[in-house]
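> forwarded from #structure-qc
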């Protein structure tokens, strides 16, 4: 016999009725163990010859073979020569073991044998490994193998293996001869097929054990599939969040996608995700995924300052897991938290802060509301922490994008203001300067010009000079208002006094021009207001001037006033006097009602304006009113429907006696 012959090929060639099949490692090992259990359950002392990989089989089966060695002393185990010393340490204590080394080039090292030959029964499993050896997918290995209880085949396999041992270890020749005589292996084994019924094989034990081991293998596969499925769900969750990051820069959308995916991973829980800053004392819940049996918290105000768990979670970099909220020490001492968990049906609580570069951006909460406590698994906590990291990046990116959009918007406004400034101011400066220059040149070239014409020219030049002075003054006033250096002297004041001063100035402005009728319709016994007198007069003058400019001389301008909250006992900060300047003039389109208060805003293009001005008057009015603690707004039914400008001034309440 050649040393490198294959037992598998030898038997398949010698017994043509054998039909090898493909087996995975798990069912093949189940067959081997079921056959070994026949030895453990019987009273026979059979010959056992096994060939398994030492590291993958022998050590896990050490106790099993120690039990088998108590039944029989005829055990031969083929091992890799590189691992022989490992098993010899064991066989020194267990004299019934005999380790037979196989060389690295021996074909038998790729085969798997288990041959059992007893006086009452025989059994064997013979196979050879298929494909490349991959230690990382041990259970995925495949074997071409057959198994049988036929005595003639088991005898032939045992004789072949004993002959192989004799060649490798001549010192065992006498022991091997005794083994052959003991199990009738020295006789020529007939090649005819023996019936199973001729042997005393306990088929019930074999079948039960085989099914048990197959079920055990199937259970291991089931557990492995569970791990794979969990890992797949976690990976899908991370991928979904990553896809959301790539497809959307809307923070709210990213948060909602995250809670929806977490809700699938924790179907019996409530998942909350909200943005916050470290100084926030409360938030309103907007993004939630809740189990059907749990109450929704969307729209609820979630208080944070009274929650010691939130403070603890905020102070840590990882997750804060509470398996039983009712037995938690911090919750027991806090009535507010006890009421909160009762209202929100929280049995177990998981809080994970969302951070980006050590900055707190939000909080992720998962609530379990079952009857029994829920123990948060380390794998789940690790997953949620990974999710919180991705969400932190998402919020930071979205916030940066939002800030960039806002910055671009502000730059567009500045660019538009700059363009309007150049166009409007250029027009407003060039027109009066051109008039003044022409009149002065005319007066210089024609000294004999009639007095009436000369006077008209001088009056026109003086009027244009006043326009230039007013334009420059508006720029200076707006600049001072932005820095808070003007109209800051707040004092008690009668409204009718300020209106009278404003009307005198309007009369002065329009002494040589037609204007509509101005009528003050004020109720009696108006309260004293708190305002800067000069600032209030400036606002009234500018609003009345605007009304006169855009109202024909046949129209009307009305000054009205009313008290807001007249029946209340509120403080002076909450109680105001509302003043309205209403006209019957050109009106304002509804889409322009807010824009008219922007700098350099005009309802007409500067190239086709019928009224002079640079568009600073209403911007100045808004700044003055806001500095005095009031608000200003405009209303209009539309073009040619007139307009109304409203503003409020705080009222000074009389001191209680």
């Amino acid at each position: 016999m050649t040393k490198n012959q294959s037992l598998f090929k030898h038997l398949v060639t010698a017994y043509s009725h054998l039909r090898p099949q493909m087996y995975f490692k798990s069912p093949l090992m189940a067959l081997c163990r079921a056959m070994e259990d026949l030895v453990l359950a019987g009273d026979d002392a059979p010959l056992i010859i096994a060939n398994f990989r030492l590291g993958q089989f022998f050590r896990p089966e050490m106790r099993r073979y120690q039990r088998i060695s108590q039944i029989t002393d005829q055990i031969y185990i083929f091992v890799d020569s590189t691992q022989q010393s490992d098993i010899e340490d064991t066989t020194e204590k267990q004299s019934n073991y005999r380790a037979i080394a196989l060389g690295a080039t021996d074909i038998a090292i790729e085969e798997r044998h288990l041959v059992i030959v007893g006086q009452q029964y025989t059994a064997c499993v013979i196979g050879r490994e298929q494909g490349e050896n991959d230690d990382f997918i041990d259970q995925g290995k495949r074997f071409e193998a057959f198994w049988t209880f036929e005595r003639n085949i088991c005898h032939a396999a045992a004789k072949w293996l004993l002959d192989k041992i004799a060649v490798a270890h001549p010192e065992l020749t006498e022991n091997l001869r005794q083994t052959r005589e003991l199990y009738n292996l020295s006789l020529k084994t007939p090649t005819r097929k023996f019936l199973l019924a001729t042997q005393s094989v306990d088929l019930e034990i074999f079948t039960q054990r085989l099914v048990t081991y197959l079920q055990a293998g199937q259970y291991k596969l089931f557990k492995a599939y569970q791990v794979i499925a969990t890992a797949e769900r976690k990976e899908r969750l991370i991928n979904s969040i990553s896809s959301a990051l790539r497809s959307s820069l809307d923070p709210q959308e990213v948060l909602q996608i995250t809670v929806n995916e977490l809700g699938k991973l924790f179907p019996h829980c409530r998942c909350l995700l909200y943005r916050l800053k470290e100084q926030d004392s409360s938030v309103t819940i907007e993004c939630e995924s809740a189990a059907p049996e749990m109450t929704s918290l969307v729209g609820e105000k979630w208080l944070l300052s009274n929650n010691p768990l939130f403070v603890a979670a905020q102070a840590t970099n990882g997750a804060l897991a509470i398996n039983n909220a009712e037995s938690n020490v911090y919750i027991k001492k806090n009535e507010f938290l006890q009421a909160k968990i009762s209202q929100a049906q929280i049995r177990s609580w998981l809080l994970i802060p969302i951070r980006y570069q050590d900055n707190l951006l939000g909080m992720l909460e998962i609530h379990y509301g079952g009857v029994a406590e829920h123990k948060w698994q380390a794998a789940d906590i690790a997953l949620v922490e990974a999710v919180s990291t991705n969400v932190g990046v998402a919020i930071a990116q979205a916030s940066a994008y939002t800030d960039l959009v806002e910055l671009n918007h502000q730059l567009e406004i500045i660019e538009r203001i700059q363009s309007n400034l150049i166009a409007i101011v250029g027009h407003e400066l060039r027109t009066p300067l051109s008039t003044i220059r022409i009149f002065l040149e005319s007066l210089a070239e024609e000294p004999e010009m009639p007095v009436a014409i000369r006077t008209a020219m001088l009056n026109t030049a003086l009027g244009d000079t006043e326009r230039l002075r007013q334009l420059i003054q508006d720029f200076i006033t707006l600049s001072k208002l932005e820095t808070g250096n003007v109209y800051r002297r707040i004092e008690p004041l009668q409204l009718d006094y300020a209106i009278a001063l404003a009307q005198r100035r309007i009369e002065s402005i329009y002494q040589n021009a037609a204007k509509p009728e101005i009528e003050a319709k004020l109720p009696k016994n108006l309260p004293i207001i708190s305002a800067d007198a000069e600032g209030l007069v400036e606002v009234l003058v500018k609003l009345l001037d605007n009304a006169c400019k855009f109202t024909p001389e046949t129209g009307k301008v009305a000054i009205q006033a009313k008290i807001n909250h007249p029946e209340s006992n509120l403080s002076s900060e909450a109680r105001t006097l509302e003043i309205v300047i209403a006209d019957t003039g050109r009106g304002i389109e509804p889409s322009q009602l807010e824009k008219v208060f922007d700098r350099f805003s005009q309802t007409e293009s500067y190239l086709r304006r019928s009224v002079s001005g640079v568009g600073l008057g209403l911007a100045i009015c808004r700044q003055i009113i806001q500095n005095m603690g009031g608000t200003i707004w405009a209303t209009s039914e539309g073009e040619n429907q007139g307009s109304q400008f409203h503003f409020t001034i705080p009222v000074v309440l009389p001191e209680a006696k």
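QC bot note: The chain has 17 helices and 21 strands. The domain at 234-401 is CATH 3.30.450.40 (Beta-Lactamase).
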